[in-house]
Amino acid sequence: MMTENNKWVACWGNATSITNRREAVYAKDLTLRYPIRMPFGGSMLRFRFSNLTGTEPVTLTKVFVGHTPITFGGEKKVCLMPGKETESDAISYPVHRGDTIEVSFYLVDYTQMNSGTLVTGPLSKGFYAYGDYAEADELPIDLSRHTNWFYFLNTVDVLTSPENRAVVCYGDSITAQSWPDYMAQLAFGSHVAIIRRAVSGTRILRQYDCITYQAYGLKGATRFPIEMNVAGASDVIIQHGINDIIHPVGEDVNPFRPWSDLPTVEEMERGVEDIYVKPAKAMGLKVWSGTLLPIFGWRTYNEDRDAMRQQFNEWLRTSPIFDGCIDFDAAVRSTTNPKAFADGFDSGDHLHPSERAYEAMAQAAVHKLIRHMPRYDHEESF
User: Fold this and answer.
1) Which of 130, 152, 217, 362 is 20 to 30 Å from the Cα of 198, by its Cα?
2) What pLDDT digit, counting tens, does each position of 262-298 carry?
3) CA-to-CA distance for 201 and 80, rounded, in angstroms?
4) How far apart are CA 97 and CA 152, in angstroms?
5) Cα dihedral value 287, 324, 327, 319, nearest 10
């Protein structure tokens, strides 16, 4: 039985942040290509491009999905203004669940590469090529390389059937890494798309303005209203706050990380409620807390920081302001030393999980959010 497609739902998305400051900040004569797996079918697509953290206009000279031009007010190229996000026209482009679409765009002239984010995971892989290959079937192997930097492309929406929805994963480097991709794989076929809104280094209450740490992103109050522009969203998972705890070290150690940046647990709790939960509830979303992971052995670890983490986690588990808690900490911690990762679950830096641990986090999230959602049948509408 065919179902009418009458609902726009985000099927893929990342945050946009200031890219890491390197010697070169401009690109020229460059093609970017991003493959995206469709979590469900639909009949039309639209695309959002972001120059949110740019300070100069950015011109995308050619923009394609497959061999189909993506247009903006009927035009085949678009100028992204600094500090702004731009949505394309809706284009007819039928897709099925499991299809991979490829979004490609060409930058002909010197382009400020200030707006993007670094993400990893089995579903997050981009490519760049020197030259104009936006319309090519394949990128030339001798002129192209893989990248995990996602520039300018921010969100893809699909016009789909009404049972489909989006779940937003909001956070920092933990969420910019693999668990949302593993969650998307586990949720495949459940009528749920997983949208990642994560930037490494971000904090709830503070942000850096120096070029050393600009890539650590915008503070929560600035990020959240922009990043929660997600069509068809039903839920948001908040896994954020560890950088508020571990970053400050004192100006004698690092002039950009004063002790005055260290919040109290109560300030973090109030920030989560005021910056995240209340606005999300006003959008009609269910809000799920995600506990903070072990940090034992991290270079700024001390008992006081871990006590803050434990106190904050207890609030995340028990506060009635949330619709529920995904206990990521419990999913990855050691049973013999709960302050540390379980064996095989530490990436090696004692802060970020291993791939096995990210899979465990995804399983915990799916168990909470997806298990009661209806599974798909074998009929797929356009």
Assistant:
1) 130
2) 999 999 999 999 999 999 999 999 999 999 999 999 9
3) 26
4) 25
5) 90
